[in-house]
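Methods — Computational structure assignment.
A single polypeptide chain was analysed. Its primary sequence is given first, followed by the predicted tertiary structure written as structure tokens.
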Amino acid sequence: MAGCGCSTTCSPTQKISPKFRRALWIALVLNALMFFVEIIGGSHARSVSLWADALDFAGDAANYAISLAVLSMTLYWRATAALLKGMTMAAFGVFVIVKVFWSWWHGMVPEPMLMGAIGVLALLVNVAVAVMLYAFRDGDANMRSVWLCSRNDAIANIAIIVAALGVLGTGTMFPDLFVAFIIAYLGVSSGYAVIRQSLRERKQSSITMGREA
């Protein structure tokens, strides 16, 4: 959004693509449903990566809801919402790291067949959402954060499926823990990228509004 004029920064409303709004609603519903699926399935499978992904689904559902709430607001408030989402993504990554050490300490070995089946289902959902949101990946920080969430989830689900195969082959918890670390890294790195962009957009918006005052 660098170099944009007052029409996008200062206006109280912005024209939003109906396709983007509809995609957000579909993503919100799917992520909320998958949260419950992975919470229940992760508990039965004793999988750290599924629990982490369940929390990620919950966070994404909340992020989509926030995105819908601020779609028609000024750039400053959209960037502020993106800043909150970026901080949430990074905090999620830190939480997963803590959860990995907790599971390692307690020696929890997951059930690979259930873990893999849920991973496949989650992958199908996240790929569908990512495809819907792909066209909006180069928008402002708010749109970009939505795309990054969907992309990261699809990558994480592929890793979970691979981890399930690793657990099945080795009989140990370590493939599951390794994937949880990957999910954590994606959360921290993407959160950092969104935070940086949202701070730039907030600063740009404040400067533009100051000139218009």
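Note: The domain at 17-212 is CATH 1.20.1510 (Alpha-lytic protease prodomain-like).
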